[in-house]
Design a protein that fits this description.
single chain; 573 residues; alpha/beta; Rossmann fold; Cathepsin B, Chain A; seven-stranded mixed sheet; five-stranded parallel sheet; 24 helices; globular
Amino acid sequence: MYNAYFGFKEKPFKLVPNPEYLFLSRSHEEALGHLNYAISQGDGFVEITGEVGTGKTTLCRAFLESLDETTVAAYIFNPMLGPKQLLKTINDEFGVTYDADNSKDLIDKLNAFLLQKKAEKKKVIVVIDEAQNLSRTVLEQLRLLSNLETNREKLLQIILVGQPELSDLLDSHELRQIGQRISLRYRITPLSFKDTRDYIQYRLNVASQKRAQIFNPAACREIFAFSRGIPRLINIACDRALLAAFGLNRAAVTGRIARTAVREMRGQSRPGGIALMDGRKALGIFALLCAAVFGFLYYPQIGEVVSAFFRTPPAGPPAALTSEPPATPPPAADPAGATAGPAAAGVAAAAENTPVPVDFQSHLKAAVGQPSRMSALKNVLALWGVPFEPKDYLDALDDDYAYFNLSSKGGGLLIHRFETDLTTLRNLDMPVILEFQAAPKTAPVYLTLAAIDGRRLTLKGPAAEETIAADAGEVNNAWTGMAYLPWKNFLSMAGTIPGNAPAESVLALKMLLREGGQPEIPLTQDYDMLTQQAVERLQSKYGIKVDGTVGPLTKIALYREQSRFEIPRLAGN
């Protein structure tokens, strides 16, 4: 109702676990850090708890989306199952086929799958949400599954996510065998007042795709007092406050409006002078809606007028949204189809700097011991137009992938880690962090690839404003083949297709393919043969493994195909 009024692409405070809207408070960042560390270690159970509404499910979705191809995951969000049903669900999530209906055969099938993934050097995890609802018999079954192991390590890692009652359950005497196997525990805490204020602003920015100052400090204080820092309650209160401001034709939510919204939610009386919606206004809106429906049914051209209205920015937008200067119109696309926009311009500007002609191997040796991962991340985020905000407690992370991933989430970016080659990077045409080994048994050095011009590569180094020119052969000799690619999931396509992706992700995939010039793709929720063939053609074009499976790299290629998404390119490519 209020989206067009405030300039939102969608409601900013919807009660759905969309990873794009995950705000990383310190508590949430540490929880993600614990999960990534646990995956890197690969043993025991992991327990993540938090009160109702603290964002556990959203955190799970974001964590699962951040996993690369070296990890296979099953996500179970309906734990009200018996032991046998749990085994079947796990096998279904992993795509393990079975005919038997007894626990032993189901476990044997799962064990064979785990051994196969072990041979492929892949880790396997099971994430169980709402785990406080697990029965004792199911928990005992999970304990038995954790016994699937080789002489050296576990074959299956189990992550339990739930409310604080889960900790009480696992600490009980009857379940002490499981409790003793918990290798990592973390409790997500509610947001502080500062985090609440930043959380509100973050969701507004994501929904409007620009900085939108709508809630003033007094409104944030009212929201915090009501919610006590619980994200779900913050969402409910903010949604009601925006509706109130819209009804009053206000450009911003004040403390008084927020206080009134909260009181109405609690069923308390309203102070005089402000009402969210009285009976006459509700009746008037109902009459307008009826007239609109009648017009759509009998005069279709009205629909075109209304659609044009919502596509056109309002003549007089709320003052709170006009503090920024209007965006500069993007330049016309060149014949090569280069993407315009601030981020792309940033890459081009970076490439215009004259690279330092140095011996590449000598440069790498000199960079050993420098904070290259921080500088590489800062450089690649700058090419996306995202400010780098260092956090001291993330510097302590030994896992570089976890560091890159957690440090990028505040800017709405994901990091995809994969082994690749320069040909694939040239096809993807995006700035990327490369991992180098200066000498055996030395710490890795990270540099940002900013441009490719034939065999000449331009990389950004640890020193300020440092650009390095190197031949492709020199780079290949020292490069480990590992790349860390920042990307943005513009349409929030969750999961892997086909597999654990929701129907909305399949529809988003099909719409992107149709938009890319394949109108024959049917808009259904099924991953049909036509769609799979289109995906395989796309994968072949970008040099991605042709398997018809839509994971992070294929999603990146899909977004790269569309000019409407602002994605930086490698200059000179």
